[in-house]
Amino acid sequence: MTTYHATDAFSVPELYLLAAAFGGNVLFGLPEKQIYQLRGQEVFDEAHKRLIEKEILTADGKITKAGAMIIQAMEYYHQSKKYVRINNLMFAFSEHNDDELILMIEIEEQSLYKLFVVSKAIVLKMLGEKFPIISREPQEKEKSFLKEELSHQERHETEQLELGNMLTNLEMFHLSEARQEITNPAYYQQWLIFTKNEKLIMVDAVQRKYYHASQYWFLKVLFDEMEFPYKEAQ
């Protein structure tokens, strides 16, 4: 299995120009195309010029071999029925290969992105390295429960924490759901995950509920959503 990655970051107008090759006018998680259309044709002319400089397009506008690979990855991203976001990493799911994920990394907020097609085994390893909370050793007592809602006092104390870079944001979007409303957990969930006094805390950001969670429950949520084979965790 090969791992393809783009050699450069792409602006949003560049990505929409590439998506036009397969008729894609919406790219999940990116600003709307209309925002850039309202700014005038010069925005896309400049994006076209940059794609030629990156050898994604030829001088006469034809797609290069590298460009074709990127466009195919974008098409798979566009076709995904589910997306999972972990901090600045957005994952899409290919119907063409169950062993791979399409990864869109937000380099600069709402403006610059990198695109990868990566095997799930590599993604799992990468996440474990990037987010130490995934590799956290569970406490012995975590074997006896999945999650427990915090007491009023514990919640109050937790709300006062300044978490900064300690916070892991996990969001799940299921676009095949008919009722696409934030309050429908079958369509959307957001969990804020961190540790406090060695306890694993998971906050349901939509329902505003605070839990002391076991590492096993956290990993089950993550593995189920990412569609990781459980055997790879051993």
Automatic annotation (TrEMBL):
Name of protein:
DUF5081 domain-containing protein
Q: Which Pfam families match?
A: DUF5081
Alphabetical list of InterPro entries matching this protein: EsaE
Protein's organism: Oceanobacillus arenosus
The highest taxon in the source lineage is: Bacteria
